[in-house]
Amino acid sequence: xxxxxxxxxxxxxxxxxxxxxxxxxxxxxxxxxxxxxxxxxxxxxxxxxxxxxxxxxxxxxxxxxxxxxxxxxxxxxxxxxxxxxxxxxxxxxxxxxxxxxxxxxxxxxxxxxxxxxxxxxxxxxxxxxxxxxxxxxxxxxxxxxxxxxxxxxxxxxxxxxxxxxxxxxxxxxxxxxxxxxxxxxxxxxxxxxxxxxxxxxxxxxxxxxxxxxxxxxxxxxxxxxxxxxxxxxxxxxxxxxxxxxxxxxxxxxxxxxxxxxxxxxxxxxxxxxxxxxxxxxxxxxxxxxxxxxxxxxxxxxxxxxxxxxxxxxxxxxxxxxxxxxxxxxxxxxxxxxxxxxxxxxxxxxxxxxxxxxxxxxxxxxxxxxxxx
Length: 372
What we know:
The protein is of the alpha/beta class. It folds into 2 domains: 2-184 and 356-371, Glycogen Phosphorylase B (Rossmann fold), CATH 3.40.50.2000; 200-355, Glycogen Phosphorylase B (Rossmann fold, 3-Layer(aba) Sandwich). The chain has helices at 15-31, 72-97, 110-116, 132-135, 140-148, 150-153, 165-171, 213-226, 241-251, 265-270, 286-291, 305-309, 324-336, 338-351, 357-371; strands at 2-7, 34-39, 56-59, 101-104, 122-125, 159-162, 178-180, 200-204, 231-235, 255-258, 273-276, 297-300, 316-319. It has a 7-stranded parallel beta sheet with strand order 3-2-1-4-5-6-7, sandwiched between helices. Strands 10-9-8-11-12-13 form a 6-stranded parallel beta sheet. Strand 1 (2-7), helix 1 and strand 2 (34-39) form a beta-alpha-beta unit. Helix 2 packs across helix 3 and helix 8 (213-226) crosses helix 13 (324-336). It starts with a strand and ends with a helix.
């Protein structure tokens, strides 16, 4: 089976990119699929994760991100010009590759793909929840464009794949054929687990509006008043990082910000708990990653990922209503009780085995076979 993935780039060391690499590698190694991936914005950037040499990479050189150098009508004109070029080059690529199936990673590409793909079955993956545009206040133009273009074409998709049932229910407003397949997750394979004795809480994620590190700072102010010897270590990049670095330095409440490291599991093993304050979360890869190291986790019950991963009071805590004081109380509860940390951590380790590749990838293979 010849499968063609379509995405923007393989350059960022992010969750979407890591999952895509893992899935493509697995398809080649275990199912002997002929896998191709088309990128629009890769350019000369190196590929972020290890990719099987049998996978064919085609970059179309569209560079959609160049539109953000402009404002207003100039940005719109640049986008429309790039969209036309995308259709032309994608059509030529499809004629050359002749895939049995297309899997689109970016919803915003659906309209162009539908217009040029012919009879080839098309899957679209939701890696940012259906309601995400409503949470991204700064992207009003993008929100309008998305709904007027790609969302209206989703009824032409052969299957929309969501990561959670909550997101799947939202997509059914636009697409009749929707299923749920969770992410493949890299789990702890070191044979070691955290002792949960250090006085270190962890945050791992982008410094962006979605991840809402600012709320975690407010929570940590409360925690710091009660337990000033405890530290919050944050690992991430993002446009808001300089702002937060300046803020935590001024506040002086034992928050340390670090650049992401290649092997984040070493940091999970050094920590005592993982904290997440996302406003929305399509899945939340860092949750099962940390849980596989035996860490209890705390997250807001946001749409939709954390609720699928955390069983409140069993393997972590799920905080309703974005209540900062309740969140801080649960952090302090874990600080105060080593036995509670160990109990939740032990349950966390057992609960994430369902996300290993040999349990998730057969679901993808079954879906592919049903469409081809």
